[in-house]
């Protein structure tokens, strides 16, 4: 059987989850998550909160994130986003009003 390429996992507004997520697709955090996440795409919504370790290709943070983040593609911090901790990124976009209060590293390009 084929697996779906558009797998989506949603942590709803009233959820408070602790653990380890390893997902092939997108993770959307509208509530609260503590632990570790490994996925393709991660979105932390305006009222979402994540205190964890993250490994993802693309990340959008419009809520609160604290911890260690490794984003190999595009890391976007929206105008309502706050990021604290240690961040490694491929490409970085911080919208006006977004807060990046972290130790920041750019990953080396894989292009030659």
Concise synopsis of the structure shown:
The protein is mainly beta and 112 residues long.
Describe the structure.
The chain is mostly beta strands and 112 residues long. It is 0% helix and 68% strand. It has no helices and 8 strands. Strands 1, 2, 3, 4, 5, 6, 7 and 8 form an 8-stranded parallel β-sheet that branches. The radius of gyration is 13 Å and the shape is globular. The chain starts with 7 loop residues before the first strand and ends in a 6-residue tail after the last strand. The model has no long low-confidence stretch (mean pLDDT 93).
Bulk shape: globular
As residue ranges, the low-confidence spans are: none
User: In oligomeric terms, what are we looking at?
Assistant: single chain
The share of residues in extended strands comes to: over 45%
Distance between the termini: 37 Å
| Backbone CA Rg | 13 Å
Q: What is the overall number of helices? A: 0
Arithmetic mean pLDDT: 93
The helix content, as a percent range, equals under 10%
Structural class, judged by helices and strands? mainly beta
Q: Largest sheet, if any?
A: 8 strands, parallel
Q: How many beta-strand elements?
A: 8
**SSE string, helix = H, strand = E?**
EEEEEEEE
